[in-house]
Amino acid sequence: MSQPTLTTAATVLTLQGPAGALEVAVDPPDAEVVARPVVAVFCHPLPTEGGTMHNKVVTMAARSLRELGATTVRFNFRGTGHSEGAFDHGEGELDDLRAVSAWVRASQPEHALWLGGFSFGAYVSLRGAMELRPSLLISIAPPAGRWDFARIALPTMPWLVIQGEDDEIVDPQAVYDWLERSGADAELVRMPDTSHFFHRKLMDLRGALKNGVSFTATGMPHSGKRVASKGGSAAASAPSVACGVRSRKMPGSATAAIRRCASSTTAAGDRPPA
Q1: Is 195 strand, coil or helix?
Q2: What pTM was estimated for this model as a whole?
Q3: What is the C-alpha separation between 112 and 214, in angstroms, rounded?
Q4: Mind listing the domains of the chain with CATH numbers?
Q5: Burial of 149 (0-12, 13-18, 19+ CB in 10 A)
């Protein structure tokens, strides 16, 4: 069975994946920005808890990346939506990501690959990052403490991590501790007063992504957009850690704490999912 072509038009299509059909949504860059030669693949949260490619955090993340000029690809993991197969606890889902990424690269070999995910999708994309070698990695609420992060090979590409301070599902401190212990080299944006699903904070997430991606890739913030929520300063609650904390004022009204961790310790294993 031949695979469809990745086009520049918005479309929903079906790929042949490792466990059968994979439902894929492709969206072109925002018409009002200069298109970049980039395709961003973004992974959705836990299917057994209702996560799909239509999750509001995933769709906002994809929208934000399109506003930066990227083409976005969202897809349903096996057993979700119109994708065939059954949930496979991150193993088969990693195979699904491999298949989608290979299709993107075969269809657009001249484009850079960006990779990202939210919650369980962040875990899957983290596991595949060093194999797939994207030009940029984005992890929103990576579920440290809920899945086995000890098996993750730490990314060496530019890496943006966004974490809500009031996440009721992923323990924010577990994320910060994992980054510190593991010796990760990441840009960390902490969003105050922000829950796991970014309730009433989706527009702030949009700003955090656009500023964070621009800063991670170039060292300069995206012009005129917020990077954290209005409600307070993430810098005020930043922990004292060996890797250090840098606070900087973004364009707009909010301050974000950006932390580059570069310790030399080894990651410890985390608890399995509850």
Answers
A1: coil
A2: 0.82
A3: 15
A4: 1-156 (3.40.50.1820), 158-201+214-265 (no CATH)
A5: buried
